[in-house]
Amino acid sequence: MTAKIIDGKAAAAEVRARVAGIAAEFARTTGRQPGLATVLVGEDPASAVYVRSKGKATSEAGMASFSHKLPDTTSETELLHLVDQLNRDDNVDGILVQLPLPPQIDASRVIAAIDPAKDVDGFHPMNAGRLATGLEALVPCTPYGCLYLLKQELGSIAGKEAVVIGRSNIVGKPMALLLIGESATVTVAHSRTRDLPDVVRRADIVVAAVGRPEMVKSDWIKPGATVIDVGINRVPTEDSKSRLVGDVDFAGASERAGAITPVPGGVGPMTIAMLLRNTVVAAHRRAGLSDPKGV
Ligand SMILES: Nc1nc(=O)c2c([nH]1)NC[C@@H]1CN(c3ccc(C(=O)N[C@@H](CCC(=O)O)C(=O)O)cc3)C=[N+]21
């Protein structure tokens, strides 16, 4: 069996086009564009690339982009001050503080300081709790993007066996909650799971979010399963360059899976599309408008 390759780039382009339409309509009715503020602390080149591509995608969707760059010597107090300013700025609907932060800054304090109504990452405990209890929330972009691809691929996932590998607050936990919300039977596996290969062999749906290059092997994959690879690992190549690989052995797994996301071009582009989606949703809610339809 050769798996269908799930085209995350194409799905993301569709979402972004719909978001652009919604943003234009929002601007017509309110007289201002939805706005996203990104905050980058320090000089990590990979982070700088992500933040730049988010800014570009934001402008392309007809939204205002406010980009803040702070030196890596920034204190927690200084960063909290900027967050406070962005919380009060009516033109800012979404605030994204790029993680990881330098060691002198406690990320959980910064996240807790973001206005939950502007928390387009969905990382604030208020949004995490709302997602966990089934209330309206802003949902973390990566798992939301994964769910979008799964529903596009499978339609209903009710009753399916889903195995999420990884239990982070950013991907694994919210992914499990979203899958429960769709009535899947959900197992969360992690570094202490016994006999991980056998656990994964049960899965109709595998979501791999561990951050270990090609850890999930092809003989763990149940024939016909849908595989969502969240990993983005840069590994060195023989010509002393590097390439991106996921958490799944893509070549092997794509001979057994029914459908699989590639890296790059799978989940990554969906993360950015969902960030834009969350920003227009936050803008509508803040403006007292009902949620936009179709995203
Ligand atoms: N507060 C916060 N929110 C985030 O959402 C967040 C963050 N911090 N810190 C860093 C991670 C990483 N992240 C990615 C988003 C898109 C791609 C993406 O589009 N990747 C492309 C290409 C990658 C490449 O070529 O380098 C792909 O997978 O096809 C990757 C990684 C968001 N993050």
Fold and architecture overview:
By secondary structure, the protein is α/β, with parallel strands linked by helices. It is globular, with a radius of gyration of 19 Å. It folds into two domains: 30-115, Leucine Dehydrogenase, chain A, domain 1 (Rossmann fold, 3-Layer(aba) Sandwich), CATH 3.40.50.10860; 141-268, NAD(P)-binding Rossmann-like Domain (Rossmann fold), CATH 3.40.50. The strands form three sheets. Strands 1-11-8-7-5-6 form a six-stranded parallel β-sheet. It has a three-stranded parallel β-sheet with strand order 3-2-4, with helices on both faces. It has a two-stranded antiparallel sheet with strand order 9-10. Helix 2 (45-60) packs across helix 10 (267-286). It has helices spanning 8-30, 45-60, 76-88, 107-113, 125-132, 141-154, 172-181, 196-201, 250-253, 267-286; strands spanning 4-5, 35-41, 64-70, 94-97, 161-165, 185-189, 205-208, 226-229, 233-236, 242-245, 259-260. It has ten helices and eleven strands. The two termini are 33 Å apart. The protein is 41% helix and 16% strand. The mean pLDDT is 97. 5,10-Methenyltetrahydrofolate binds at residues 50, 96-99, 121, 141, 232, 244, 263-265, 268-269, 271-272. Pathway: One-carbon metabolism; tetrahydrofolate interconversion.
Q: If you average the pLDDT, what whole number results? A: 97
Q: Structural class of the helix and strand makeup?
A: alpha/beta
Looking at the overall shape, the CATH architecture of the largest domain is 3-Layer(aba) Sandwich
Helix content: 40-55%
**Element pattern in H and E:** EHEHEHEHHHEHEHEEEEHEH
